[in-house]
Design brief:
With 135 residues, the chain is an all-beta fold. 0% of the residues lie in helices and 53% in strands.
Amino acid sequence: MQLIDIPFRQLSPNDISRPWLPVIIVNPHADKRITVLALIDTGADECAIPASYAPLLGHDLMAGQVKQVKTGNGLTTAYSHTTTIEVGSFTAKNVLIDFMPNLHVVLLGTKSFLSHFILTIDYPRKIFSLTTPAR
């Protein structure tokens, strides 16, 4: 899969341009899906989703695997649920994704998403590219 020269997006007038990627998040058990913009976050080990998305996807938030995670704002509780992330022709199937109560954006972290790609970020031009490595 190749997504080449995707422009950064500025989501609000006072925000800076960032590498946002449209993705589809799926609950494979309920076959419910939502399309969202997700932030490429090379500093995040895991992918994370706002807790408010759990009911939209048919997940019972509190029934997920409970864990404490370190964030830029300190320790917080996360509830992990099996989720699939789709972008273009790529699918990260049945991965545990952290649903977090105080999160307001979807973050695409390294372990279950970015580790599948060669990521190129061109900050001066405000574009990024994702390609799957040759096998």
